User: Fold NAD(P)-binding Rossman fold from Escherichia coli.
Amino acid sequence: MLAEILQVKNNAPGGLMMKPSHPSGHQLVVIRGAGDIASGVALRLYHAGFKVIMLEVEKPTVIRCTVAFAQAVFDGEMMVEGVTARLATSSAEAMKLTERGFIPVDGRSRLFIA
Assistant:
């Protein structure tokens, strides 16, 4: 699914990827996990201008739910320190969410599976 995201992002489905048209400070970062530590990392990257996508398992076990974007898997949306993460059901939706300023969370953790 990561390949699908890159294809959608680069508007090049099935073909060679184009050179990135964005400045280096706006690159896409994929984080495996959406617990409290990963959410803290995601927040730092987001505030630095990176587009962030988070991968999480279908039923995450999170102790500090109030500061973890993993909660979006259960509730569809989670806000931490003013930044909102939303559950994404497809790679195209994940890219649209990043463009709208959200952090997409894949609750199936399948973005690395082709």
